[in-house]
UniProtKB/TrEMBL annotation:
Family to which the UniProt record says this protein belongs: Belongs to the OsmC/Ohr family.
Annotated protein name in UniProt: Ohr family peroxiredoxin
Gene3D superfamilies noted in UniProt: 2.20.25.10, 3.30.300.20
GO biological process assignments: response to oxidative stress
Xref: InterPro entries: KH_dom-like_a/b, OHR, OsmC/Ohr_fam, OsmC/Ohrsf
Amino acid sequence: METLYTATVSNVGGREGDVKSLDGVLEMDIRRPVEMHGQGGKPNPEMLFAAAYSSCYNGALMGVAKKRKVILPEHAVEVSISLNQDGERMFLSGKIVVKAPGMDHDELQQLADTAHAVCPYSKAVKGNMDIKVEVLV
């Protein structure tokens, strides 16, 4: 195994704190969302996870399309990450929506499913988090 890249980010203050990357590229305040009785107005862990997941998944999608020699039209990947509670237990769930207007639905679904199988984030959460994949054409 070869490590291609490692990101290191520290947090002080939890959901009402700040995060900073070791290299100083990322530095921001984190706030609990209003829906969780926070002040909102700043990123939160679920938002940052969704941003990272959507970027990684879209890279996987574009890679799969290129490998299959499929022309992927202008498209977007939207990832929703939900923080859920069942009694004392808290857990995450998610939804990936691939939007590619004008593309064949079945072909896009095949690309989306394959991207989900190879995306490092999808692999990381497999078996630990319910993720639904949907396509819109």
